[in-house]
Amino acid sequence: MISSTDGAVTAAPLRTGFRWLQLAMGIVCMAMIANLQYGWTLFVDPIDHEHHWGRAAIQLAFTIFVVTETWLVPIEAWFVDKYGPRIVIMFGGVMIALSWILNSYADSLALLYTAAVIGGMGAGAVYGTCVGNALKWFPDRRGLAAGATAAGFGAGAALTIVPIATMIATSGYQHAFLTFGIGQGVIVFILAFFIQPPRLSIPPKKKQLNLPQTKIDFTPPQVLRAPIFWVMYLVFVMVASGGLMTAAQIAPIAHDFKIADTPVTLAGFQMAALTFAISLDRIFDGFGRPFFGFVSDNIGRENTMFIAFGTAALMLLTLSAYGHIPVVFVLATAVYFGVFGEIYSLFPATCGDTFGSKFATTNNGMLYTAKGTASLLVPLASVISATYGWKAVFVVAVALNATAALMALFVIKPMRRSFILGKEAESANAATGAAKTETA
């Protein structure tokens, strides 16, 4: 970082290798907050066994976490724009550690919910800052950069799922919360000292402009007035709801299907179906985010959405019909998360393409709140499953994904192109009119 004469801190210079280092540090920070969402499912039944609060009441903590994580991102993004990413990520590191420390001592639902709020604030601070920073450093590879950063969040839990499950079994879930909470928070806090934004705006490469990309930087109020933003928001909610439900409920689903502890052998590895599924889910999720981001950089955002959302619907349908078969459960959930996670690379990239780079952190933060809206449906899944079974929950999720796939291709694609071309034409006409007035 470089200090100006008035004491303000300016951003890092534009160096090609430096931006890849920034991306790598952002990925590691994201990996450190992954367990707050994707490792949660391992704690649900042990907490219920200890306190008998009921799954629905315990899963409300998950919803509170996601709502807090997402809906506060625009506010945290404002702090990033004003004070830089370092202080916001440091704050995030402290909060995620405090959250799991409180979880380890929680002897009431009130304390569990308080920890969820604190964890959501911390995770949102890290998530929004790292994705926004990636969009600013890589306007020429927005899909890949957002996908790689989001992959840290998607796959970050893959390496720790087995250790956490083992620690829960041997030492209790409280010890697992305490140990991993402190470790994850410390790593984020340290990395925060080295994360910086670019000093200057980096223009996208001309060869990338086969993708619709605006030349105008829209302010957050302008974005909120654009109908295309709300259509994108709706589709985000439709797809995210199924993924969040599956991520939060995968352990209860496996237990209800009576396959959680059934051994499954794949590619020479043998594990209990639930542990195998969660581990593969994180790997496929992590791989899918940069992969689909890269694909979208080449074939277009909406075309990629159609492929991914359609595949997600097919996998959920498979789970509904054959999820009670252990190997099908493992493979179908893995493929599902492989295509589900791309929403966290495609929507930020699409947002940056549509509304520009200057306010990318805040604009993407506003769109990211759709995840929080979707999380409100997670406890509802427990209620529906208790009444109608998990098949009914899967059928609803299939319908949402299939509809989202069609909307991406036939609604978002033409609306977004029309918005970009229309606004650029308005800007050009205004510039021409101003020039004529000045000449006259």
TrEMBL record:
Residues covered by the Major facilitator superfamily (MFS) profile domain: 1-416
Keywords on record: Membrane, Transmembrane, Transmembrane helix
GO cellular component entries: membrane
CDD domains: MFS_OFA_like
Transmembrane segments annotated in the record for this chain: 20-40, 60-80, 87-106, 112-132, 144-169, 175-195, 228-251, 263-284, 305-322, 328-347, 368-386, 392-412
InterPro entries per UniProt: MFS, MFS_dom, MFS_trans_sf, Oxa/Form_antiport, Proton-linked_MCT
Gene Ontology MF term list: oxalate transmembrane transporter activity
NCBIfam families: oxa_formateAnti (TIGR04259)
Identification of the protein by name: Oxalate/formate MFS antiporter
Species: Bradyrhizobium betae
